Here is the input.
Amino acid sequence: MLSKRIIPCLDVRDGFLTKGVKFKGNVDIGDPVVTAGLYYEQGADEIVFYDITASAEGRKIMLKVVEKVASTIFIPFSVGGGISSLEDMRSTLLSGAEKISVNSAAVRNPDIISQGAEAFGSQCVVVGMDVLKVEKSGAIPSGYEIVIHGGRKHMGIDALWWAREVERLGAGEICLNSIDADGTKNGYELELTRLITDNVRIPVIASGGAGNPAHMVEAVTLGGASAALIASIVHYGEYSIPEIKEYMHQAGVKVRTDWH
Here is the structure.
């Protein structure tokens, strides 16, 4: 059985680490390079870096910050935000990322998933899915809708359909973010997580809502996720990564504890 991964998420705006609730009210809370180094030392399994306003502002990702983070950590490093072409993917990988995360760009141009998988391998291509719970309808039978541009634009696309489609197109992994749960610390959206994990064969990272280590256990057991994304609870020092992993280990979840 593969170890379940704990993945701190660094949302970056204008070069600063930032955090909001339900994608709103973001405040700057630190230096992403220093923070990435700290989480690496604590035993994070991967780091995810999102330039959260790049897509909405129509600009490219800040590669200088990516390069600085990549030089600080020696674990898998996934980068997203403002990546909309094969050339963007290439330059981000050359800046030190191991994985590329596409979200809004993949919804607008699904071919970027298959192009990226063909050029760099499926293992490099993560598709981020930002999802809102809505009324079930003919267009959205699952009751979960894909939104883009940091939750600002509804797409009328069913999340379950889209998850199956990105797997078909060659994505190696899905990062599944519930906007309803994001930053609330009330736990992951387990119904959504299980819906997706039951219907795709690729790994799914649960994202949005972690408030304590029990939530991570729920995400990887009840939700069936391969990994849990965390942000607020480590950014604000409520829990350290070793504390989270020890809790998960005691709960019977296989985690990597042999770092450094």
Observations:
- Residues 5-129+170-250 form a domain with the TIM Barrel fold (CATH 3.20.20.70).
- Residues 32-42 form the longest helix (11 residues).
